[in-house]
Amino acid sequence: MRIFSKILRQLIRYLNGMINIYKNKKRGIKFVASMTESPGRVKRIRQLWDDSGDPRDPFASVLITPLFASKNTLKIIRNWKEERGTEVYFDSGGFWVQQGKISYRDLYPALMEFYKKNQWADHYILPDNVPVSTDSPETVEKKTFETAHFSCMFFHEMPDNLKPKAIPVIQGHTYSQIYRAVSSYINLGIKYFGFGSFSTSGNNQNINQYDSNAETRLNLINEFTREYGIKIHVFGVGTPPVIWRLSLNNFFSFDSLGWMRAAGYGNIFMPLMPGKLCTHNNIFRPHISIDDFERIKRITNHKCEFCSNYNRLSKSRINRVMHNLSCILDTIDHIRKLSLEEIKKVMKITSSKYLYQEGQK
Q1: From CA 25, how far away is CA 112, in angstroms rounded?
Q2: What is the pTM of this model?
Q3: Which residue of 76, 125, 250, 301 is most buried, as measured by CB atoms within 10 A?
């Protein structure tokens, strides 16, 4: 009888996991706009979008790092929630620990104090210590252990009404590190996890890279969590093709500042295409010509107010920001509406390198 009961419980968990995956397939992947910006910029981006006439709402869900956002920005986001029904994620600030702006030791009490005083958000990210590609194996082990251990401690100290809103972050480079985090969080009874252990690059290791290492880690998370019906949020997604890769794994949501950051470097997205330079201010980097731009617009059926004039797009950072944001939404629309074969046909033109192993998912 005990063996039968155990098998039945495992079967129920598996079926619940399959139901969750089916639901995710039907609704695609959810975009969460990262908005830890100055209040003036936040207001301007929202106003430009509202004035564009696009009926989609890229700010239906937003992520903000409250310990590193101004009071006025927080006030704006709270107003969006109260007046427009915006879903709000409070980020832990792990990125800022990674950048050396605050120690992990100091993050814990500061975040706990803020969360206790501000119980109006929908989701609360637990404190994480992000490993980077230049860390030694010993440092990665230390950071990943601390994240799993102190996330559980933080969860138990949270007010009871916030616990169902908690999102612990899976940090890990190895099988055992990822398993430790996942099993620890499952024991808490939480059904929504985050992932943040990408490979990193850049002068401050502040750019996430979606490579084979990241894909292996995400596949492990799928393997460990599938039968429990757990939703996975992926932090810091950079470009549209990565969104498609994540959708193949049926991940629930992602956040991105890439649409804004890429624009600052002079790059423009297209649906299912990574950033291409359009400012012509760097002779050592390849640019997208106006002819190629118009060709890919036709192929991807992209139209937005912000790219109707290529010359203006190449000279205006804010136009690139808004255009890139539109392309993020177009990418999600394509994922929801187009068949796998139709998407692959587009990506063979826009970003063929992301088609590796597409058949195994």
Answers
A1: 35
A2: 0.88
A3: 125
